[in-house]
Amino acid sequence: MKNLLGSSIKDLENVALDYGQAAFRGRQIYSWIYNYRNKNKNIDQIEVLPLDFRKKLKDDGFKVSELIIKERNLAKDGTLKLLLSTNDNESIECVGIPTEKRLTACLSSQVGCPMDCKFCATGKEGLKRSLKASEILDQILFIENEMNRRVTNIVFMGMGEPLLNIDDLLLSIRSINNDFQISQRKITVSTVAVPKMISKLSAKSFQILGNCQFTLAISLHASNQKTRETIIPSAKNYEIKNIIEDCKRFVRETGRRVSFEYLMLSGVNDKLEHAYELSNLLKGFQCHVNLIQYNQIEEVEFQRTSIKNLQLFQSRLENNGIAVSIRKSRGLDKNAACGQLRQNAKNQ
Fold first, then answer.
1. How confident is the model over 171-224, as pLDDT tens digits?
2. Which residues contact 275 (CB under 8 A, 6 or more apart)?
3. What is the DSSP letter of 13?
4. Whole-angstrom Cα distance, residue 324 to residue 335?
5. Is the dihedral of CA 331, 332, 334, 336 positive or negative?
6. Is 16 or 327 the better-scoring residue by pLDDT?
7. pLDDT tens across 202-211, in order?
8. What is the mean pLDDT of the chain?
9. Residue 87, exposed/middle/buried by CB under 10 A (0-12, 13-18, 19+)?
10. For the Radical SAM core domain, which residue ranges apply (predicted)?
């Protein structure tokens, strides 16, 4: 399968030349894919191309999309969640999160996830495979077409562990930046943290992207190693103190601050002693904490912390000099927790 999505203008010019066409035919394909973001993804419908060229591309297996929509869920707050089917009959999820001024696309990087975080629906069935860059990018097109507006921000917070698909992750970021014209500064890569991969991410970013301007977000969710291992089994392979040291190195190498995601779980990690512990862990370097209201799922017993606890926790961090904000959960009425839509579809 040869997917044209993710190809640069030079790549597409070369495709045209390989078929005995003028280079401008490649630029026409590029414009059709990225500028028009056409809902019709069939090469037959690139009507600016000669019919025989379109036929040859199609006969040789070229495509612009390998995904199809299986299910749409629109929440009361306007959040749209899509369940997409892949060419090999797997399912992935992506989410469009609108505000007045921006449309954020929450993208998946893998089918399933190997990390098995206890609060997350995605990891319940493990990892099936990693997504190709074209499959990652296609999620953006589906969100744009369904919501009839351009995506302005990208978060890799959907299904999968992005750092375990690092090459296709960075290739997709390069295309998001160069072809979709979305600044790296509007892209966030969220990771549970994998040993040795944070330093590899910065090094490979400079190799593939030429720089590293996106935001790295660590799904920390705990203030100490023991608690983290309880909710994230893979944490036993990566001490929390080592994660922080690797994050400090990332800041030095890239000049970009690191965000820490902290899911507030009632009675587990939401006490003031945890806030004090987290403050001591993070003080002294360029970072920001996002406190997140838990989006409950049926399969696990974790409960969302109270608003009062959330605000007290925030105040304790602020008083200890930590930059912190509360991130509101979206799409609560429509299975917005990662992996829920896929799991529900499998159970039907």
1. 999 999 999 999 999 999 999 999 999 999 999 999 999 999 999 999 999 999
2. 223, 312, 313, 316, 317, 320
3. H
4. 27
5. positive
6. 16
7. 999 999 999 9
8. 92
9. middle
10. 99-333
Q: Are 290 and 325 in contact (CB under 8 A)?
A: yes
Structure tokens at 299: 């399969």
Residue 347 has pLDDT above 50, yes or no: no
Mean pLDDT in residue range 43-71: 94
Angle at CA of residue 177, ends 171 and 183, nearest 5°: 135
Could you tell me the end-to-end alpha-carbon distance of the chain, in angstroms, rounded to an integer?
A: 31
Distance CA 26, CA 9 (A): 7
Q: Is the pTM of this model over 0.90?
A: yes
70, two tokens: 């299986």
Cα distance between residue 28 and residue 39, in whole Å: 16
- Compute the radius of gyration of the chain from its Cα atoms: 21
* 267-277 tens-digit pLDDT: 999 999 999 99
Active site residues: 93, 338
Tokens of 51: 């019919």
pLDDT, residue 86, reads 96
Q: Is 219 annotated as a binding residue?
A: yes
Amino acid at 5: L
Which amino acid appears at position 51 of this protein?
Answer: L
Cβ count within 10 A of residue 63: 18
Residue type, 162: P
106 is in an annotated binding site: no
What is the spatial distance between Cα 216 and Cα 258, in angstroms, rounded to a whole number?
5
Q: Give, as one character, the DSSP assignment of residue 189.
A: E
Structure tokens that stand for 13 in this block: 């010019």
- Is 113 within any annotated ligand binding site? yes
